[in-house]
Amino acid sequence: MSSLRNVLENGRLVVVTGSGGVGKTTMSAALGAFAAAQYNRRVLVLTVDPARRLADALGLESFGNAVVEIEASALMRNGVPPAGRMFAAMIDTKASWDELIERCAPNADVRDKVLSNKLYRNLTERFVHSHDYIAMERLFEAQQSPDYDLVIVDTPPSRNALDVLDAPRRMKEFFASRLLKLLTTQAQSRLFSLAAKPFFLVADRILGARFLTDITEFFTLFRTMEEGFVKRANEVEAVLKQHNTTFMVVTTLESAPLHEAEFLIDALRERGYSMNTVVANRVTPQALVSQAKVALSELEASIQDPVFVQAVVKATEGVEPSAEQISRVVSTIARKSAEAVRKGGAEQATLDALHKRSAESRAELCICAISGAEIARASALVALGESVHPA
Amino acid sequence: MGKTTFSSALARFSASTGKKTLIVEMDDKGALARSLNTPDLQFAASEVAPNLFAMSMNTEDSLREYIRLFVKNPLVSTFGPLAKILDFVANAAPGVKEILAVGKLCWEVREHNYDIVIVDAEATGHIVAQVDAPSILSNLVQVGVIREQTKWMQEILHDKATTGVVIVATPEEMPVLETMQLLDTLQNTTNVGVSAVVANRVHDDVVQGGDVAVFDSLWQAVQSNTMADEVSDALRAPMQLLNVATQRRRNEIGNLEQLVARSRQGGVMFMSVIDIETHVVDVVTAMTQVLKDELQ
To answer: Is some CB atom of chain B closer than 8 A to the CB atom of A294?
Structure first.
C-alpha cells in the first residue's frame, strides 16, 4: 500500500471515481494543484464537468478540449513558486470523437462518410456510453504523452462508475459481436435469412427496414476502423492495470454516496485494479467536534451566569442588542452547536467503519475536512489538496 | 439530490387528493421501494397505498409488452428470453432502450390508466436522451412502425398541459449549474416543458434577522480575545463549528438566487424544501405535508 502523497509524487495515472455530487472534480483539481505546487512534476488534470467556478479559480477563460497550462503565479504558496507545472483540460465528447474518427479512419472517404452520418452524430452527442468510451480514450492519450509526469482523471458521472472502465471492453465485444457481422453482411443474403433470425424479425418489425439499412451502412463504415479501435481498447485496458496506475474513490459520509463507494472499493479490488486511496470528503473536523463538546458543557452551565451574560453584553455593545436578543443568540449557539456535535459524533462512527473497509482493501483512508468556503482561487485549491490527510 | 424522495412525496400527495397515481422507478435500484416503504417493485404495477400504484421499469418486459400489443406476432412466445435480442437491437440502434422505457410511460398516459404518472427518472445526464428519444428516433427513421409509434409519444411528451419535467437539485454549486444547463437544453433543444424546479435540502439560517449582527460581533470578540478567557473558551469551538454551517448557508443563498432567477426567466415554478434529517420514510411524510401546504 502506498500513501496518497507517494502516489502524487511518484504515480503516473490516478483515476478518480465516486458517485455524483461528492466533489470529485474539485478533489481532482485540488490534488493536481497541490502535486504541481509541491513536487517537480508536470501534472495534467482531465475533467468532465464544466465547473465554471473551477475554471475561474484556475484563471482559465474557459475549459476546453485542448490542454491549457495553469499560470505558475496562480499556484504560489506563501510567496513560493510551484515546484512543478499544472495543466488542465475538459473533455468535450463530440470533439474527441471526431478526432478519434479522423485518426482511425483508413482513408479520407470513410472519415467524411462517418463524420456526416446521421447515426454517428446522434450516437456521439446524445448517448451516454459514448462519454465513457471517450473518457478512457483521453486518459490513454494523456498517459502515453511525454508531456506529463502525472495524469489525474476525473471520471464522468455514470449509472455505475464501473461503466467507464468497461467501455473499452464493450467496444471490443461490439466489434467481435454476431450483431455487427449480421448487420454488415450483404443486404441481399440478409433478406433471405430474415425469417430465420429472430433478431431481424424483431428489428425489422420495430425499427423498419429503412432504419435497419441506415444502421447497416453506418456499421459497415465503422467496421473498417475495427483494427484501430480494438488495438486501442486493449492498450487502454493494459494501462489501467499498470503498476503505476492507481484508483481513488471519493465519497462524502452521506448514506447514498457511501453505499456507492463501498461497492466501488469491492468491485475495483475484484477486477484487479490497484485501489490506493479512499477520500472521505466534506468531513466535519473531529478535533473541532471534541473541543466544542467540552466547551458546550461550560457554555450550558454559564448561560444564566450574570458574569457571562455581562461579558456578552459588553462584547456586543456596538450593535446594541436587547436582553432578549442576547439570550436568543447564546441559546441558539448552544442548541445548534450541540446538534452539530451530535452529527459530528455520528460521522466519526461512519468514518471508523469506512477506515476498516479501506484497510481490508489495502487502501489508505484520507480525510478532507469541510470548510464551507468557496474555492475562488487556485491557491485555495492547492491548500485544499494539501489538507487531504490520512485518517 | 433527493429525486426519489421528492417523487415519492409528490406521488403520496397526489394519491391523497384522490387521483389515481402511478409512480415509476426508472433505474431499478430499489430506492423507490425503500422510500415508499414497500416490498420490491415489479414491472407490473401494484397498489402500495390507496390510489397509489408503483412499478419498476424494465426494458425487456416493456419490449415483451410492446410486441404483444403492436407487433401481434404469435412467434414471440417462441423467442425465449428477449434479453439477448434486446441487447442486440439496443446496441445497434441508439435510443431503442430509451424509447421502450418512455414508450411504456406514454402508453399508460395514452390509455388513461391513471390520472397521473410520476416518474422517478435517472440521473440528470440521461433525462434528455430519455425524454427526447421519440424525437431523436423519428429524425433517424424515415418510415416504419417505430416512426408511427414516435408520433403519438411526441404528442404526449410535447403537450405542456400533459407532460412536464420537474428538476430537483440541492443548492450546491455543481447541482445548480447542472440544473441551469438542463433547463437550457430542455428549453432550447427539445419541445418538452419544464413544470418546476425544486431546491431540496435547503438549510436554515443559523441565526436570522437582527441576530446576525449580534452573532457576528460576538464572534469578533471571541477572535480578538477581548473577553475573559472562560467566556471566550465556552464560545469559541461551538461558534467555530457553526461557522461551517454559516459559510455553507451563505453559498447556498447565492446558488439559490441564481436558480430562482433562471427559473423565473424560463417561466418555471420554483419551490424549496428545508433539510430534514431523519429516516427516508419520515422525510417522504414530511415532504408530502410541505407539498400539501404549498400546492393546495
So the answer is: yes
Note whether A220 contacts B: Cβ–Cβ < 8 A: no
**Pairs across A and B, CB distance < 8 A:** 218
Q: Do B141 and A308 touch (CB under 8 A)?
A: no
Q: Inter-chain contact A295–B221, Cβ cutoff 8 Å?
A: no
Closest residue in A to B84 (Cα) is: A199
Enclosing H/E stretch for A331: helix A323-360
Is the residue at B265 inside a domain?
yes
Helix (H) or strand (E) holding B167: strand B165-169
Strand A275-283 with A85-90, pairing: unpaired
Q: If you ran DSSP here, which 8-state letter would residue B179 be given? A: H
CB < 8 Å from A in window 160-189 of B: 170, 172-175, 177, 181
3-class secondary structure per residue, A67-116: CEECCHHHHCECCECCCCEEEEEECCHHHHHHHHHHHHCCCHHHHHHHHH
For A170, the closest chain B residue by CA position comes to B91
Span B28-78, pLDDT tens digits? 778 899 889 999 999 999 999 999 999 999 888 887 787 777 666 555 555
Q: Does A127 touch chain B (CB under 8 A)?
A: yes
Residues whose CB falls within 8 Å of the CB of residue B187, separated by 6 or more in sequence, listed in order = B194, B266
Element (H, E) at A283: strand A275-283
Tell me the shortest Cα–Cα distance from A244 to chain B, in angstroms. 31
Summarised one tens digit per residue, pLDDT across range A88-144 is: 988 887 888 888 888 888 889 988 988 888 778 776 655 556 777 888 888 999 999
State which residues form the domain around A294.
Answer: 286-347
The answer to whether position A104 is within a domain reads: yes
> Which chain A residues touch B132 with a CB distance below 8 Å?
126
**Is B187 a domain residue?**
yes
Using CA atoms of B157, B161, B162, B166 in order, give the dihedral in degrees to the nearest 10.
80
Using CB atoms, which residue from A131, A201, A336 is nearest to B206? A336
Is residue A225 in a domain?
Answer: yes
For A277-313, write each residue's pLDDT tens digit: 999 999 998 899 999 999 999 898 888 888 888 888 8
Pair (A24, A9) in one structural domain? yes
Q: Are residues A320 and A213 both part of a single domain?
A: no
CB of A259 within 8 Å of any CB in chain B?
no
Which among B141, B145, B245 has the least Cβ separation from residue A205?
B145
Sheet holding A42-47, edge to edge: A68-69, A85-90, A42-47, A150-154, A13-17, A245-251, A275-283, A364-369, A389-390
Grid cell, residue A283, equals 468531513
Complex ipTM more than 0.90, yes or no: no
The residue with cell 440502434 is: B93
Does A174 contact chain B (CB < 8 Å)? yes
Distance of CA A43 to the CA centre of its chain: 16
Inside any domain, residue A352: no
